[in-house]
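Continuing from the previous page...

OK, I double-checked the sequence for PH domain-containing protein against my notes and this is the correct one:
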Amino acid sequence: YSIDNNTMLHVMLDVFKDEDENFLKMLSCRQGQTEGDVIIVFVLITDKHVYLLDYKTATKKFIIQSFIAYQDIDFIVHSINYQFVNIVCRNKRNQFWLTTGDEVLSRLIVDTMCEAVDASELKIRKLAVFDDATTQKICLKKYITQECHCEESEATQEIYSLVYWEDPHSRQVKTESSSKEGKLLQKVKDPYKGPVWKPVYVVLRDGILCIFKSKSDSKPEGYLRMGGDQCVGCRRSQSSEKHHSMEIVVSKGDSLLLAASDNAEMCDWLMCMCRAVSEGMQDDGTPFSCLPCCTVVTSNKVLMCHEDVQTSFFRTLGSANIEDVTGIILDPEDTTYCLLEFDSQDTSISSEEWVLYFNSSKEKEKFSTALSACWKKQFQVELPLNSFYNITLQKRCQETSKILHNSLKL
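Thanks. Re-ran it with the corrected sequence; updated structure tokens here:
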């Protein structure tokens, strides 16, 4: 990531912890893509620290989200297919996940960190890097066994990828899946008591989050448009003062803190809010729902799921049989996404297509190669490679792809 002289000066004056610190690389990626609660993070690597930075568009400044000294790192873990990086500190409670969705980017981040440690004049031991993803593979195998109704010995994952997934023809599902209401707690500043948690009634509908004092109130105390120029993301809160809390990140640099009564309720709220944020990102009013998640191709299914990276727990969002796939559409003008075409009697599956957006052309190529191999194994012929029949759909997909890639740029 190339930065101009003014940005470099800002980083050196306002971000670096040490006066003699040297800039090595700055890279952008996402956090939370496996769980659907995406935050854009800029990874600044120096000869002494790794900084995770938020960029505030309003002030054009970087804010430190977290920073890690190399001597505090215990080890680093690559996920299956190098889709995310887990940095584990000696204090095991401090862990960081970078969901790059891109093998090249994952390797570059870790390699740069290792080179910094190797070149350091400080007596720091080499970074231990593991890429076998043993725990994740075991959990994924159990998940595939359950979803595919097969023996564990038959449960194989052909490819595991991080994607943005949308069903262009599922407008009704989109509206219902991103609507929710109920009682939550909100953290507010009391003029006398300081920060306190107070009960509120929250309604999420049509991309707008409204906060009422109670369910009977007709006028909200406040509201927020999810996505676009008001809200940039939501995530599980790192605050330890309140269990099951969520953070909604506002474009101005502020955040809204809400808490649910239990973990299941929090996950449901996060799912709905993340959908609303993803849908709200599209300023041109296109009717697509675009969901960050994982895709897993097995010998007989394509699974769309969310994964809790802390526990490797998988939650199914949708699935389709390989035998119901009738073709794949690739766009020669944009090689980072593809369309899967279906012909299925299963009412839970779109009878037309799914669109999968990847973080790089190479990741899309790995996915399409794995899917084609599974399809050929079943039918003994090549998976049909079809052309776009709908130019409007192609242009809309290209625009969504552009929005997703531009979100990683300053």
